[in-house]
Amino acid sequence: MSSVYFDHNATTRIDDAVLDAMLPYFQQEFGNASSRHGYGIQARRAIDQARRQVAEAVGVQPVQVIFTSGGSEANNLFIRGAADNLKPGHLFISAIEHPCVLKPAQALSRRSGEPWNLQQFCVDPAGRVDVEAAGLALQQHPPRLVSVMLANNETGVIQNVAAIAEMARVHGAYIHTDAIQGLGKIPVDFAALNVHAMTLSAHKINGPKGAAALIVDKRLLLKPLIYGGGHENGLRSGTENVPAIVGFGVACSLAQARTAETTHHVSGLRDRLETGLIGMGATIFGREATRIPNTCYFALPEIEGDTLVVKLDKAGFAVAAGAACSSVNPGQSHVLGAMQVDPMLARCAVRVSLGRDNTMQQIDDFLHATQRIVTELKQMSSLSFQ
Q1: Does domain 4-12+260-381 have CATH number 2.60.40.60?
Q2: Which of 50, 208, 282, 355 lies at a CB distance of 3.0 to 4.6 Å from 8, suitable for a disulfide?
Q3: Is residue 252 flagged as an active site residue?
């Protein structure tokens, strides 16, 4: 097992304070939050507290927080839930969205009867949505729904969501942003982003898997994906996962308090990392754009990403070849494809995503190991041609 974890965009270790807050709700305080007795009342109070903590982290009212089982469900709740309340029209997403936005959008475009017209905003070679081109596209095809992620999970590139939202609002569209990779790494403010809905997830900010939220404008009308007892203001039925929700709330409070410190720390680590990688001849994807501070997506020419990931794992470093959520579908990253990266170079892509517990010594050790592995692989390649 790898001893150094460099894959924080995939998931994070639960913080000790988060785990401590969760533990009582597995045994001592195990009540169903819909029950009227003391156990249920205690569970409801815990959920209400967590809702306040999540709301405070992004500057909204607690009533705007709809808890879900994960970011994928929250993104689907917006895309499908909003679409089911509207007459079909133009649906815009960026070309670099996570599959849990891309796939439901594609499903709407293939729907029998009255399908939606799916359009994609292009990105430049640095991975940024072209805001000017987006404005022209919105004028040509007035939208009903728009979804643009705040920060890309592979490159870390931050998008100008507020500018796109301003243009989309002129047409009366609903706007959503997947802000999962932004929270805890950069300040995230719902009002400043000018959106109607925003997705957050616990396990990216040292919280538990199985808890996320869709933050909604009070005027946004959605139809639920899951019907039943009318939980979460009727938008997400099902007995609440109280321990995970409690952990999500604490993780949001910690992330809010630590953002500036974390940003400073991981920025220094990434600068050291990228200086070393560039010295080896690496290409850093998205380097010309503003990025979340913990993410480095690089390629060493002629060194296949999958091979390097396996070799680094054996050397004690856990990194990723692109997005963990796409690991069941091997092939070129659609994000790098949208950035018009040469397919041969895209095959070499490796993502390092840092966390607050990583150290400068780990960066130096990683660079040493990478240099050694690259040298060995090139020697093997050279011998194979002799």
Answers
A1: no
A2: 355
A3: no
